[in-house]
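>> Question from a student workshop board

For tomorrow's exercise we were told to take the sequence and the ligand below, predict the bound structure, and bring the output to class. My setup keeps failing. Could a helper post the expected result so I can at least see what it should look like? The ligand is S-adenosylmethionine.
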Amino acid sequence: MNLHTTHDDVRHYYGDVLQSTRDLRTGACCPAEAMPPMLRTLLEDVHPEVKDRFYGCGSPLPPALEGRTVLDLGCGTGRDVYLLSRLVGESGSVIGVDMTTEQLQVATRHQDWHAQRYGYAQSNVRFVEGYIERLAACGVADASVDVVVSNCVLNLSPEKEQVFAEIFRVLKPGGELYFSDVFADRRIPDALRTDPVLLGECLAGALYIEDFRRMLERLGCADARGVSQSPIPLLDPQIEARIGMVGFRSMTMRAFRLPLEDRCEDYGQIASYRGSIAGLPHAFVLDDHHRFETGKPVRVCGNTFDMLAQSRFAAHFDLHGDKRVHFGLFDCSTTPTAAVAAAGACC
Ligand SMILES: C[S@@+](CC[C@H](N)C(=O)[O-])C[C@H]1O[C@@H](n2cnc3c(N)ncnc32)[C@H](O)[C@@H]1O
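>> Workshop helper replied:
Here is what the output should look like for this input. Compare the format with yours to find the bug.
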């Protein structure tokens, strides 16, 4: 894919062609009703103009963010940045990076409005115009970010592997990538990959789930987890006629900057959730096959153990065991969905 043409086409689509969420031609954009109730309440305090130009396909807003530094790649008009501003609290900070001036103009116009609304002495968000493939040029240093989020953006990049390499560069050890994006059930035919409308609608550049897994593995991340997913309907008959042979899904994925194994191995380790994450007194969901009920000990594989023990979630779990004795491959007690099995190790 030609780098400059793709960036220009995408910028034109989000800067000039689309004026509001209603202009989108697929059902990728996630409706507010699909959000967790707690986030829906916070959405009421986001400025209407910001919400009106929301083009995301999920709610990549993980829990336990108080006091953290979060980076939103392709933040657009800043809906998620402002939700995150609230979630990290006044002691945390949020950086939003986007390459489209028109999008950032809307985002920055309402920066003071949000700070006042939240009762902050000053805004804890910073917007940077730049490319997600070049985060150093945006002033994001190595190992400086706790959580990277992104909502329906990575598919638009002509250099996806470079974006993921940058993500793992800027994440602190144990930091988390938590993102929602459009995934495809096969590779997109070459003839369609540069079509400006299919690209702008987040279809032509959609990641084939197996290639995503391979890419992350090359970058040292052998176990990305699927959190949730839903099919994307192609609402426009012309778009359906052109690319309807591909199955598209909006998926929320999480991956940690941790040296994990490429398979789930059994070391006899146990994790028990304390119920201490704000807003989650009863259970914590790590992924679509790990739901930890408060106080209930769960046998976990080595990778799951490390995701809990070496991340910001450690303070919220009682963790027992180490890796001194190996009991073989972890015996999966639940069957993960095909997409999740494809996206990483299975446990
Ligand atoms: C589908 S919109 C999503 C915007 C926002 N995340 C939201 O949920 O409303 C994609 C955004 O990513 C930005 N974008 C796409 N490719 C980019 C790149 N390579 N570097 C920086 N921003 C990019 C576009 O300018 C646009 O604002």
